[in-house]
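We were asked to recover a plausible sequence for a given structure. The inputs and outputs are reproduced exactly as logged, with field labels preserved.

PROBLEM: sequence recovery
POSITIONS: 262
GIVEN STRUCTURE:
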């Protein structure tokens, strides 16, 4: 073999060593290069949506998002079907589904049961089973060791463009703990008025800001009537905190979380 042939062979072997075993969805993105910038999906980011009678509010930013809970995975049954973003689901790519994160977004997923971690791109909605926070593709679940047990305790951290590992920072959204879960619906109360006209005015301002799930609730107490402007219902304190942050960014101050009262 001449010198030129040896160089070509060496280059081929080096290329093979770099790409062997990397899932299709990860090619072109080395662990040290950081995740690429993303463009919000036109179809995947409504202000809110309803599944099984429950309304979910899509976050307008993933900055600072961190969450712990159960991960599950979905595979061949959904392979080839369209995702919420309009992309076709490929079980062999490193993707995932989340209920409220903006689509698409890259997240770092760490399996707290075995210490494995990876990066996936969220491009779908789900899982809509109580207690589960993310649905992994088959490829991602296999890499994290989730395929055999079916579920695993994980921590997910949203990444911004250029990141390859989570930053050590103060959480923008608190982690879910069992005692933080509420069976009674939560609402974000935007204001309480003695005048129904003032309440309706605030409601219209919220609707104009694309906050779809707004209600005016009447409360009679001590011989007086108050008209409370509320966003909800919500069933997760993490979600309620995230919506409060979104409302503050839109200029609505003074909001607080309240529990629904009969």
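RECOVERED SEQUENCE:
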């Amino acid at each position: 073999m001449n010198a030129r042939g040896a160089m070509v062979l060496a280059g081929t072997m080096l290329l093979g060593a770099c790409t062997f075993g990397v899932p299709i969805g990860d090619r072109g993105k080395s662990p040290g290069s950081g995740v690429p910038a993303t463009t919000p999906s036109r179809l995947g980011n409504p202000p809110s949506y309803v599944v099984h009678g429950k309304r979910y509010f899509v976050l307008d930013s993933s900055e600072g998002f961190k969450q712990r809970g159960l991960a599950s995975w979905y595979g061949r049954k959904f392979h080839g079907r369209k995702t919420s973003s309009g992309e076709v689901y490929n079980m062999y790519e490193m993707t995932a589904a989340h209920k409220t994160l903006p689509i698409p977004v890259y997240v770092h997923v760490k399996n707290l049961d075995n210490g494995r971690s990876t990066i996936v791109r969220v491009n779908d909605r789900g899982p809509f089973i109580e207690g589960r926070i993310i649905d992994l593709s088959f490829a991602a679940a296999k890499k994290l060791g989730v395929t055999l047990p079916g579920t695993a305790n994980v921590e997910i951290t949203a990444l911004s463009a250029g990141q390859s590992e989570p930053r050590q920072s103060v959480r923008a959204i608190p982690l879910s703990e069992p005692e933080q879960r509420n069976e009674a619906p939560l609402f974000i109360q935007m204001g309480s008025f003695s005048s129904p006209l003032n309440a309706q005015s605030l409601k219209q301002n919220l609707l104009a800001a694309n906050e779809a799930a707004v209600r005016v609730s009447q409360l009679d107490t001590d011989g007086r009537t108050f008209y409370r402007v509320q966003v909800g219902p919500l069933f997760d304190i993490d979600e309620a905190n995230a919506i409060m942050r979104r409302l503050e960014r839109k200029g609505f101050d003074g909001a607080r979380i309240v529990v629904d009262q009969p």
